[in-house]
Amino acid sequence: MNKQLVAFEKIGISFDGRVLLNNIDMSISEGEIVTLIGPNGSGKSTLIRILLGLQAATSGEVVRHKALRIGYMPQKLHIDPTLPLTVKHFLALVRGVDKRQILPTLEKLGIAHLIHSQVHVLSGGETQRVLLARALLNKPNLLVLDEPVQGVDVNGQVELYNLIESIRDELGCGVLMVSHDLHLVMAKTDTVVCINQHVCCSGSPQHVTGHPAYQALFGVPGADETIAIYAHQHDHVHEDDGSVSSDDPHKHCHH
Ligand SMILES: Nc1ncnc2c1ncn2[C@@H]1O[C@H](COP(=O)(O)OP(=O)(O)OP(=O)(O)O)[C@@H](O)[C@H]1O
Question: ABC transporter domain location, by residue (predicted)?
């Protein structure tokens, strides 16, 4: 049994009296890739912010392993485009970084040739790899990736997911990813947690079982075998605010 790195226990959060997250239970272990999915505004980034300690939960607890070391990859690089900054200097800003690790880390991610490039001229895929390099330089045992393939074309997305999987294989770290896309990420995921205010369902990814609403939302799987689909059948009803209808006798999703 792999070591559990983080457990969310009955996490809840409200903003201005509006419940955003309610009773969230989930965990991530070493060597496990967990993907958090859910519609826009369902609270995925907020849950990540709670894990990072940037946001306090209103209720519940985040239990962290005492040796937990997080490498965080944000959605975007927020840097003033008029500021001259090379990739090397950007990565040298990581607190406590061993500068000798910068080049080997870039090599591992296939972007060693960019070491002297300005960060603001990088393509979407190159930027994501630099952000991944920054997360890895923190020597994490848990990688937290908030929409790691944002702004990357489909081929680049497959490559990035392959890279994330190979990093997991090499380092044995846990990975917590937020994703909107289901097709590409699912083949690289051990556990999927679908949230919409509460945990709608969680479990292993599996091929589509034919739910028409799900296929309408996320499409039909292609022939590419790196593509797998997670089938998710709701047996409960969400109100407009995402809460579960109170007169619904079923409170959980089927897989
Ligand atoms: N500090 C805050 N104060 C008030 N409302 C907030 C705060 N942080 C987040 N929210 C609200 O909580 C909701 C969920 O935001 P969050 O970014 O967690 O969703 P998400 O699932 O990551 O969305 P997306 O898929 O669009 O990135 C949004 O409606 C957002 O406006």
Answer: 6-221
